[in-house]
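re: ur question from earlier - yeah i can do the single chain one, its not a big deal. heres the input i used so u can compare w yours
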Amino acid sequence: MTLTHSFGENIARQVQYRSIFKEKSNEALRVDERQLDDTVLMTQISRGNEKALAELYDRYGRLVLSIAYQIVGQRETAEDITLETFNRVWEKAHTYQPDKSKVSTWLTRLGRNRAIDILRRENIRLDKDSLRWADVTTEPVTDSHNPEIITT
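and the output i got, formated as tokens:
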């Protein structure tokens, strides 16, 4: 027997709205487990845990590589930027503030800034329109976008 037959359409609709509202409220209260895991990894890295750094690299290495490649346009340079970014994470993990940003945001910002620094160092004129942060995707480059970037 459905709610509509038992209680009428109006009450059934109210029950449905309440359950949707309750779901949305519960979603807002849930902690992002991935963010919590990433924060724990950052704490472990700041204590010198190399396995935690390796796990963080496994999670976000391709993302940092993709962003670096989008900015510099050269595979080898993008790989160097990625390694330098994770070296910087190793050195500066203790400065990460989980209340300020997600780990993924912090990492991609480190990689992006490093890529721009390299362009500046090489005296490559930066086209401000081509380096707008909004244009840099956080999705890893796939084979369909550029087969060269994925082969590892």
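The helical segments are 3-7, 9-29, 33-46, 50-72, 75-92, 103-121, 147-150. not sure if urs matches, ping me
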